Amino acid sequence: MNADFTGVADQARALAAGTVSARELAQAALARMEAQRPLGAVLATRAEFTLARADAADARRRAGETAALLGVPVAHKDIFVTRNLPTTAGSRMLDGYLSPFDATVVERLDSAGMVTVAKLNCDEFAMGSGNENSAYGPVRNPWDAARVPGGSSGGSAAAVAAGLVAAATGTDTGGSIRQPASFCGITGIKPTYGVCSRYGMIAFASSLDQAGPLARSAEDCALLLSVMGGFDPRDATSAQRPDQDYHAAMLTPREGASGARPLQGLRIGLPREFFPTALSAVVADTVRSALRELERLGATLVDVSLPRAELSIPVYYLIAPAEASSNLSRFDGVKFGHRTAEGGDLMSLYKKSRAEGFGEEVKRRIMIGTYVLSHGYYDAYYLQAQKLRRMIADDFRACFSSCDLIAGPVAPTVAWALGEQGDDPVAAYLADIFTLPASLAGLPGMSVPAGFAPATAGGTPMPVGLQLIGNYFDEGRLLHAAHALQRATDWHLRHPPQTTPDAAAGGRA
Predict the structure, then answer these.
(1) Contact assessment for residue 477 and residue 192, using Cβ atoms and an 8 Å cutoff
(2) Which residues are known catalytic residues?
(3) Cα angle 378, 380, 382; round to 5
(4) Is the peptide bond before 312 cis (omega within 30 degrees of 0)?
(5) DSSP state, 500?
(6) Would you say 349 and 237 are in contact if contact means Cβ atoms under 8 Å apart?
(7) Is the pTM of this model over 0.85?
(8) Which of 63, 67, 205, 251 has the fewest CB atoms within 10 Å distance of its CB?
(9) Beta strands in 309-354 (DSSP E)
(10) Do 128 and 151 form a contact (C-beta atoms < 8 A)?
């Protein structure tokens, strides 16, 4: 079995049929990761641990177990703590850290029999839109190694797109699953806030962070999310709901669906704010082409409005840095994290340890967050941002009175060139304009491959994602729509030319 670009469901079927073993899949994944190391996606592997887990999965199958994910390889964003592989959150602050426990998401996938093969690169403490903020170097986009893969889950998206692994975990605070999935031409879903436990997920912004899967298809994401989600008493923000089978929900016909038109009766809202004049023409054309395909499948497109969507950027970049400032205060060189070798008094130890351990983007957000939480500014900035956050959520509620899902682009452009926004962090912040509203409202959203922007002179056609946003806890409807689109198109089946080490190090794949 050539597993380079096979999906989770394909590998699960092959394992069930006995045409491949978990050990063979794990060995193949480890070999691909070693060959594509210049891509920058992989931070840590441990072959002996991975192969032992694969052998255990094979033994469980021989004993009669039939769990769908048993023996399928998976890799984790390096924001989830793991006992058997180091966890750094892409930061020198945690260089070499080995956790005494696994994050709940890791633990659940492990219990389902998935085989962990690697920890994957990410923007430092998940702060970034291009995966250029990692202390261990940038990740490159497999479609064009001169471009970013998106962030902060860029290592996860690049690993799946490059065929290193069929699925990976990610986290989404303001779009960090959806945007890299779009830039790399794969599928990713951020569930409703509270569906996946945050226990063992290193915190950036606690009221926004949410785990989710990245994979080749909606079906693959549904299989993973069914295991990843569920109530966790160790997480105070975990939603107390019965366990969900998202794969079954994805396959269940929706009310009004009939015959050869699987989306008959589905109303998809198109917010005018998601199609501004500043939107890249090629992105707009590609997204509208995908929307026409949804219409052919039976969906009805309706115009809606999210009047406060444009306020999402200032609201997010007040709330998220404020929470980051609080969460990262524990990394002081005494309780957690890097400790400076220069010593001095306690205050000097704090300052030097944090100055050496944190990167520039993390420092920038800590400073912003500390400022907005300071005396005299809390009411003027942070409190007002929280009020606007509630109004943004109210706008979504109004939209869902006239539609079932909301659709639009994931990002205003395709992936930009490495280094292009290095001197202008605000430009990277603006790239989140379409993903931030759903994050602030706590709604589920996903990116589905929608086609490709035409290549510029001498360049490569770049993937474009369609964003679908659902109502609270309506992941089944989201996945159903995405699955129907993917059964009618082949965008999610396309993959980049195999990235060679020379190409990854010096230009386009």
Answers:
(1) no
(2) 77, 152, 176
(3) 50
(4) no
(5) P
(6) no
(7) yes
(8) 63
(9) none
(10) yes
